[in-house]
Amino acid sequence: MEIIIQKTPDAGCLLGAKIMAKKVREKPDAVLGLATGRTPERLYGELVRMHREEGLDFSQVTTFNLDEYVGLSPDHPQSYRRFMNEHLFDHINIDLARTHVPAGDAADLQAECRAYEQRIAAAGGIDLQLLGLGRNGHIGFNEPTGSLRSRTWIKILSEQTLEDNSAVFGDMAAMPRHAISMGIGTIIDARQIVLLAFGPAKVRAVMDMIEGPLAAVCPGSALQQHPRATVVLDEASAGGLR
Ligand code: F6R
Counting C-beta atoms within 10 Å of the first and last residue's C-beta, which end of the chain has fewer, N or C? Predict the structure, then answer.
C-alpha cells in the first residue's frame, strides 16, 4: 500500500484526477471503476476540466460504478446514476452505453448482481478502481464484517451509513436501507486501486485500514493485500497514523 498525504482535500483530489488521467492517456480504452459520495466530487470536476482544456479523451473509456441504492430508478435525484451523470458523464465525451451503474430498481436483484459481475468480466476487468472510505471503514457499501471475498451483492446499510448519507434524502425515513454493491473480492480484483479519504471524521477508519489487522471489521483493510493500491489522504485524515 502506497500512502500519500496531501495538505488539503483539494490537493488530494487533484492528485487522484492526475492518476486517473494518466491511465486514460496510457490506455484510451481503459476500464475505470468509479465511486460516488462527497469525497471524489472535486476529482470529477478536475477530470471535466482536463477534458475541456487539455482534450482528455474518454470516447473509448468504459466505467463501472461501485454501487447503487436498492429501489431507486436511474433518474431518481439521489440515485448514483444521476450523481455520475451530473458530476462527470454529462460533461465529457464518454459513450453513455459504456457507463455502468448497478440497476437498483431491477426486478430480480440477485440476477442483476450476477449480470454486473459478468459485465465487468466481459469488459476485461477493471484497470483502475477509485474508492472512498466510510467512517466505519466500508468500501463500496461493504459494511464491516462482510466477507473479504464477496462478489457483487445486496448489502444492508449500517446505522452509521444511514446517518452519514441521509441528509440528501431529507429525512432518514426516505432513505433506502439496502444497496447493490461490488463485493470486496470484486474491488480487489482491479489491477490498480486509488482510495481517497479526507477530513477528521475518517481518522479512525484510516488508522484501521492502514495499521490495523487485515480483517472484515474494516473492509478497507483488504487493500493491504493489493499489489498496487494507493491511498491519498489529507493532513486531517492522516492525523492518527504513527
Ligand atoms: C460511494 C461508496 C462509498 C463512499 C463512502 C464515503 O460510491 O461506495 O463507499 O465512498 O461512503 O463517502 P463520502 O465520500 O461521502 O464520505
Answer: C
Q: Is 136 a pocket residue for ligand 1 (Cβ < 6 Å)? A: no
- In 3D space, the residue among 45, 34, 32, 129 whose CA is nearest the CA of residue 91 turns out to be 45
User: Is residue 37 in contact with ligand 1, taking CB distance under 6 Å?
Assistant: yes
Residue 125 Cβ < 6 Å to ligand 1: no
Q: What is the pTM of this model?
A: 0.98
Summarize pLDDT for 10-49 with one digit per residue, the tens.
999 999 999 999 999 999 999 999 999 999 999 999 999 9
Please give the span between the terminal C-alpha atoms of the chain, in angstroms, as a whole number: 15
Q: Write down the ipTM of this complex.
A: 0.99
**Residue 57 Cα to ligand 1 middle (Å):** 26
Q: What is the residue with the minimal CA distance to atom 2 of ligand 1?
A: 140
Distance between CA atoms of residues 195 and 80, nearest Å: 18
**65 tagged catalytic:** no
SS3 for 212? coil
pLDDT digits (tens, 9 = 90+) for 213-232: 999 999 999 999 999 999 99
- What type of residue is 143? E
Tell me what the pLDDT averaged over the chain comes to: 97
Q: Is 165 in the pocket of ligand 1 (CB under 6 A)?
A: no
For the segment 87-105, the average pLDDT, to the nearest whole number, is 98
User: What CA–CA distance (Å, rounded) separates 109 from 33?
Assistant: 20
